[in-house]
Write a structure and sequence with these properties.
heterodimer, A: 822 residues, six-stranded mixed barrel, B: 257 residues, alpha/beta, six-stranded mixed sheet, four-stranded antiparallel sheet, 7 helices, 26% strand, globular
């Protein structure tokens, strides 16, 4: 092979292939930078696309919806021809049970069919194929259904209702924006019209009883309509459509203008993207810093060779080009696998993050801009970063290159040296290490920067995670209640309260409610309490609490008030889009200290419990004092065991038929679920683990960059101090004593970096938490003093790890070799 | 068979010296002290001679060699190589000039550790313009250079796989690659045992037959005695000479420290 390459190219190649240790170090540095950048950009691109898909879908949501007794395909052109109608879509729906194996019906499933399934844009096929037009028992499952029960394409699933069952084969997977089975607990699947009719028949043509007592087929038919113009013209068009249907003997069972799904809650994701972009920029900066450090080491290591090349006729340009070629080879070696692995890891991370937002991801795609940017950074940044050290390093003259090793005449006059002369009892090898710290100020500054950044980053991450964790823990802190009970149907409160009060450990029972509400500024985590609550210890920060009998009032958390820019006395409109859509306008009467535990929401709100039920769509009579959809129960003995025991007793009252329990603080039965506050908080904190992993992964990357940077600086130090090492050896120093010089140098740099990092880290941590609070989730700054100690341990560990290879190298250096350079 | 120097203006004229040194001084000044390394040295190197620069450690031998090859710059005085002065040329110009006109052999060989013996020689050919040979002949030329120094059997060995003497011979082969009129060697045998040292020296001396001028630095009087011309340095001054038209100055005044 070598016959076909020039000697300079062969040298560049040989530098890569015959110096495996250094090749590994340099490529690792580039790899980490490019990998991190690719992962972050890939995650961002995947989530942004899923977000855009969801928003795009919402724009096509129907404006008007009708339930009819039958769908007449022949009528479709007539309906589409009505003035102001943009689109008309037929859809059929059957609600059934999905029975995994022989288990009883646990999961509800909505089977949906469209007459022209492959042409419908309501969902995206992500795997497999569409059901055949007449294929009996073929369906496409929503991919999020896998969160409810595992299955794969090709599996058969059992569908049942009212004692009848049938089977269907999964032939594909779909994603539907706005459909999130993990959140609703209901599965969804798509079938052909014929296939759905067959399932309906196989299940014995089940019927449903309407609120007015009328029995109708469980197979529902809907007509979804979008209009060109809304408002009065839409109402006219809707009337025209209904008249057309009636004229063709189609019975309209129900109709209404469908609410547009609010996109405000999805806007919270922008905060996550902002953080991701900051991380991406940090990855590029770190990558450049590491490469700069690595190339400086490379050039220093090759000083003698550069001198030799110049002595035998190489100009500075020739030398630079040779090393740039070596850097280019390193870049290619590191960048290509970094991009491949980064795309894979990015997709993995996005699929872990998406359900938490929640978003449904599409099929795996490679974004050209992500690859192009990573290629540009992976190939361009190393070259750019190498230019300065190469320009600087190749300036060396032949004489300097071949003879200027070891400490010059100006060394040993610093503060460390003077200090060393005054302190007895400290070994000279230790002082030799200390004196080596600032031999090369520029390099020391570079090492200190990366290490300080690592220490600061560690502190920021620890503070951010502690802040989030404490905030989540504080959400239920104002409650002296110990558990919540969620009824599947509103319960008659006085009866259930009396039954629960009879339990020995119950201190109090109150009506309560919790939901999310959309506003123009984003989503509020909304709670409802009795005006005279004794189980919720509100902390007013301004204004007043709710008076008995008040309905249209609201208290906002300080964070929510700041986000909305509203003031006391202003009104705010809340919308609840889950189930029946309700919109209420309330007057702000006060602000309270209340945290939230959901990413992307703007803050908390407290309403009178009746008002909250009204917002949730519980009708007038049910929203009165007489009934309750949720209650809170306080215990006398609030120890964990006693509360868990009480939870079991409450469950026995609420669910006389028994309840399942996966955890000692959680029960689920036919009538309702019981969730202890401790169990809830633990669960919510666990939900944030992914965020913590992300942040700690970043800290780890910064730490690795710091370690590699320090290792590089020490390797260079070893090279430059061969004479010292040789002299030490000649004077009888053991390998361990020689190694200690560099270990001390490394630890000293680590300790100094920690000091700088701690000073930088505190304001950075505060700024990060404030940014996080503003863009992602309102959190309070929470500093753990132990974080400083932990970051010191982390930095010293990094310093020790970084010094292993250089110290070992120094201790193994032969005296003759070391002295030969002089 | 290795070809000899091919009619360059700076070579082969036995009547004219190939290098003339006039009143050369090199002073190194630091904040702490001012050291005179060379103090007004004047001499000439006859073409196609085996020229020794002899003297004890610290006498300024290596500095003088560096000045002759343009590696270092004088504080004052002139170095005329083939009648042309080196002063005033840029570092890059000097590098190109060295590649074509001077082959350098270092005490510690200074081979590129990641390249084989053959590749080290090829690199010098590439950097020095290939001794005016077309590129397709470079490989043959490099192999011939290795054969000249008795290493034809080890072209693919890395420096770490060769003995000290073998490494120094590769360095000589590298110095010969571009067929320069002058070879300079700084203590070429200083790092070798006596048997190997003599073999390496014989190799260098044998280059005279190929029309080369070989200038070498040594502190070994025996090695110096084999030269056809020589100067002896002490404290930066020439204290003895033979066939070098040197201005000899008495011992004990000034000099390197």
């Amino acid at each position: 092979m070598s016959r076909f390459f020039s000697a300079r190219l062969r040298k560049s190649l040989a530098d890569v292939t015959r110096r495996k240790g250094r090749t590994l170090l340099v490529t690792l540095g580039i790899f980490i930078g490019v990998f991190g950048l690719t992962v972050i950009n890939s995650v961002e691109d995947t989530l942004v696309n899923a977000f855009a898909y969801t928003r795009g879908y919402q724009a096509t949501q129907p404006d008007f919806q009708m339930s009819v007794d039958r769908l007449d395909p022949a009528l479709l052109p007539t309906l589409r021809g009505v003035a102001n109608v943009r689109s008309v879509q037929y859809v059929s729906l059957l609600s059934a049970c999905w029975q995994p194996g022989d288990a009883e019906c646990r999961v509800g499933i909505d089977l949906v069919s469209y007459p022209d399934l492959p042409q419908v844009n309501a969902f995206q096929l992500t795997a497999g194929r569409y059901p055949g037009p007449d294929g009996p028992g073929e369906l496409v499952m929503e991919q999020g259904d896998r969160s409810l029960h595992t299955f794969a394409v090709g599996d058969k699933i059992t569908l049942s209702t009212a004692g009848q069952s049938t089977e269907a084969t999964v032939v594909g997977l779909a994603r539907t924006p706005g459909v999130n089975p993990a959140a609703t607990g209901d599965a969804r699947a798509y079938m052909s019209d014929a296939g759905l009719q067959q399932v309906y028949d196989a299940l014995g043509a089940p019927v449903e009883t309407r609120p007015d007592g009328q029995q109708v087929p469980a197979l529902q038919h809907h007509i979804l309509v979008t209009f060109v113009a809304t408002g009065g013209q839409a109402a006219t068009a809707a009337t025209a459509l209904q008249e057309t249907l009636r004229a063709h003997d189609v019975t309209i069972l129900d109709s209404g203008f469908a609410p547009k799904v609010s996109v405000a809650e999805l806007d919270g994701i922008n905060g996550v993207f902002l953080l991701l972009r900051i991380l991406a920029l940090l990855a590029v900066a770190l990558s450049a810093l590491l490469i700069l450090n690595t190339i400086t080491t490379l050039v220093t290591e090759q000083t003698a060779i550069i001198g030799t090349l110049k002595a035998i006729g190489a100009t500075r340009g020739v030398v630079m080009r040779g090393y740039l070629l070596t850097v280019a080879i390193y870049s290619v070696l590191a960048t290509l696998p970094a991009i491949a692995l980064g795309l894979y890891a990015g997709n993995l991370l996005a699929s872990m993050l998406a359900p938490q937002i929640p978003l449904e991801l599409g099929p795996f795609t490679i974004a050209p801009w992500v690859v192009a940017l990573s290629l540009a950074v992976g190939l361009g940044v190393p070259i750019l970063a190498a230019l300065f050290p190469l320009w600087n390093g190749t300036r060396v003259t032949v004489r300097e290159a071949l003879s200027a090793y070891g400490i010059g005449a100006e060394q040993g006059r610093g503060a460390a040296s003077r200090l060393g002369q005054r302190l007895n009892g400290v070994s000279q090898t230790t002082w030799l290490g200390l004196r080596g710290l600032f031999r090369k100020r520029w390099r020391a500054a570079l090492s200190l920067t990366t290490l300080s950044l690592a220490a600061a980053c560690f502190l920021v991450v620890q503070t951010a995670t502690a802040s989030v964790n404490d905030t989540i823990g504080a959400v239920r802190a104002p409650l002296s209640a110990d558990m919540t009970v969620n009824f599947k149907n509103p319960a008659y409160f006085s009866t259930i309260a009396a039954q629960l009060q009879a339990l020995p450990n119950v201190a109090g029972v109150e009506r309560y409610g919790a939901t999310n509400a959309s506003t123009s500024w984003g989503t509020l985590q909304t709670y409802g309490y009795e005006p005279d609550t004794r189980l919720y210890h509100y902390q007013l920060t301004s204004g007043r609490w709710i008076q008995p009998g008040e309905t249209n009032v609201i208290l906002l958390s300080d964070a929510a008030l700041a986000k909305t820019g509203l003031a006391l006395g202003d009104t705010i409109t809340l919308t609840n889009n889950f189930g029946a859509t309700t919109e209420i306008t309330l007057t702000i009467i006060g602000t309270i200290k209340q945290s939230i535990d959901v990413l992307g929401w703007i803050g908390a709100a407290i309403l009178p419990v009746d008002t909250l039920y009204r917002l949730k769509g519980v009708s007038g009579a049910e929203a009165s004092q007489a009934s309750s959809a949720q209650i809170i129960v306080g215990a006398r003995d609030r120890s964990l065991d006693a509360v868990n025991q009480l939870a079991a007793q409450v469950s026995a009252v609420v669910n006389p038929g028994g309840a399942s329990s996966d955890d000692p603080g959680y029960y689920s039965g036919a009538n309702g679920t019981i969730d202890t506050i401790h169990e809830y908080v633990t669960r919510r904190q666990a939900d944030a683990y992914l965020l913590y992993y992300l942040l700690y992964a970043l800290a780890l990357v910064v730490g690795v960059v710091g370690a590699l940077g320090l290792a590089n600086a020490l390797v260079t130090s070893v090279l430059e101090r061969r004479r010292e090492i040789g002299l030490l050896g000649a004077m009888g120093a053991s390998g361990r004593q020689v190694a200690r010089v560099f270990w001390v140098e490394s630890l000293s740099l680590g300790a100094l970096s920690w000091l700088i990092g701690a000073m930088l880290g505190l304001p950075l941590a505060w700024a990060f938490v404030q940014t996080f609070a503003w863009t992602v989730m309102p959190v309070d700054f929470s500093l753990e003093p132990l974080a400083f100690a932990a970051s010191l341990v982390a930095v010293l560990a990094i310093a020790t790890i970084a010094s292993v290879a250089p110290a070992w190298r120094a201790s193994r250096l032969r005296i003759a070799t070391a002295l030969r350079y002089e | 068979m290795l070809p000899t120097s091919r009619g360059r203006s700076t070579t082969t004229d036995l009547a004219a010296p190939i290098i003339q040194v006039e009143d050369l001084t090199r002073i190194i000044a630091t904040r702490a002290q001012r050291t005179v390394i060379l103090d007004g040295v004047s001499f000439s190197v006859p073409a196609q001679s085996l020229f020794a620069i002899n003297g004890p450690s610290g006498s300024g031998k290596s500095t003088l060699l560096n000045l002759l090859t343009g590696i270092d710059r004088p504080t004052s005085g002139k170095v005329l190589f083939g009648g042309k002065e080196l002063r005033g040329r840029s570092e890059n110009a000097l590098a190109r000039w060295r590649g074509r006109n001077v082959g350098i052999v270092f005490q510690f060989f200074q081979l590129i550790p990641t390249l084989t013996a053959l590749e080290n020689v090829l690199l010098a050919l590439e950097l020095g313009g290939g001794g005016r040979l077309p590129r397709r002949q470079w490989r043959t030329r490099a192999l011939e250079c290795l054969e000249t120094v008795g290493l034809a059997a080890y072209p693919r060995r890395l420096p770490s796989e060769l003995s000290g003497g073998q490494q120094q011979r590769v360095a000589i082969a590298r110095a010969l690659a571009n067929d320069p009129p002058v070879l300079v060697a700084d203590e070429p045998t200083g790092n070798l045992d006596s048997t190997t040292a003599h073999q390496v020296f014989d190799t260098l001396a044998g280059l005279l037959e190929r029309g080369k001028t070989v200038i070498y630095v040594t502190h070994d009087r025996e090695m110096a005695s084999r030269a056809s011309a020589r100067i002896e340095l002490l404290d930066g001054r020439i204290v003895d000479e033979e066939g070098a038209s040197a201005i000899v100055r008495p011992e004990g005044v000034g000099g390197a420290s």
